[in-house]
Amino acid sequence: MTVLDSRPDVPGDPQGRIINPMEGSEALISEAGVSMAPVEDLGAGRGPFWLDDWLRANATDVLAWRRHIHAHPELSRHEFATTELVVTLLRSVGLKPWVLPGGTGVVCDIGSGERCVALRADMDALPLTEATGLPYASTTEGAAHMCGHDAHTAILLGAARALAGAPELPGRVRLIFQPAEEVMPGGALDMIAAGALDGVERIYGLHVDPRLEVGRVGMRVGALTSAADLIELRLTSPGGHTSRPHLTADLVHALGTVITSLPAVLSRRVDPRSGTILVWGAVHAGQAANAVPQDGVLRGTLRTADHEVWTALEPLVAASVESLLAPTGVGFHLDYRRGVPPVVSDPESTALMRAGTEAALGEGAVAPTEQSSGGEDFGWYLEHVQGAFARLGVWPGPPAPQSDIHRPTFVLDERSLLCGVRTLVHTALTTLA
């Protein structure tokens, strides 16, 4: 595995607590310990005994880690402080984490043996301004954890430190703390290139779901998310007066042709059962009402839940754009950026994760969930090894409102953190059993 050693001088006390992490605001983690109200552990008493004991003693630490990360968000491929926090907390319990060559992203093994199962969390924040009003809201201008990656990281840290204290493990558990999930190409490719999947037989991950009640985990066999590609089309024209469009190439009309016709063409050229959809998000051209502009740009996303359709979309889009624009005389350049493949959970891995979740939270914990058109670079891992991805309920339930992810007002029920720890631990144990 290609790795660089992390910095050994990260500040922290022997218990792995970060010293003075929130300068200028109320400290959530300090040398003296954590001061906050505990939350209910919905899986308490379900064992194993060492997991129950660890959560009883450390549940507020998991919350504090999440709140610290939430207050100090870092954008994609700049998760340096978050990486150092992860390294410090893993080292404090005798583990030996590795940092990727880029300085963000951590890989760490727990246990020994030939068999190895991986657990993944993403660490990056979104370029948004938080509007929650929480006492631990983002202190970084233009960055906020509005997708729950702060929770993902804290959950995996909790699972790691609990597993590190287990009397014995039936194999190895690999921890993957991934940077840059929110950009393309995603940080999953960096992890894979560094060897994070070497020797791994299955991989699992969780993503917060504000539509699902806390204590429940959404699963499905097959596609959970869609492939997501970016399309940028730049058009050129000699320009001219709008009174004489026949003497030039009408760029705006050409843009309109592509805007309306390309989605229609694709809907007739791919299997409608594939969930393929093209939606434009930006169009720019011209300034004056009586002038044909010389250039314009059109941007959008193309998504599909079908892996075979995904591999065929780029040439199909290129041929369709050329055909649509040929009669207009407008020049063009198509930039088609392949994004992420669909996240497709295989039946056996899903069954193992279901069994682990039910052992962790009870028989009624697993909920059905729908396939989403959203993209998630966890799909890249599943191109190499089998695995499953699930949705972790973070909604408190009625009458609380549901606050969607990627909004400045997104909040979650912190009881979900302990549910996540239990789910990952039991899934790993079930898989290795």
TrEMBL record:
Keywords annotated in UniProt: Hydrolase, Manganese, Metal-binding
Co-factor: note: The Mn(2+) ion enhances activity.
Gene Ontology terms for molecular function: hydrolase activity; metal ion binding
Database matches in InterPro entries: Amidohydrolase, Bact_exopeptidase_dim_dom, Peptidase_M20
Names of the cofactor(s): Mn(2+)
UniProt: Mn(2+) binding residues: C147, H149, E182, H207, H406
Keyword Kinase: no
Coiled coil: none
Name of the protein in its database record: N-acyl-L-amino acid amidohydrolase
Native source species: Amycolatopsis rifamycinica
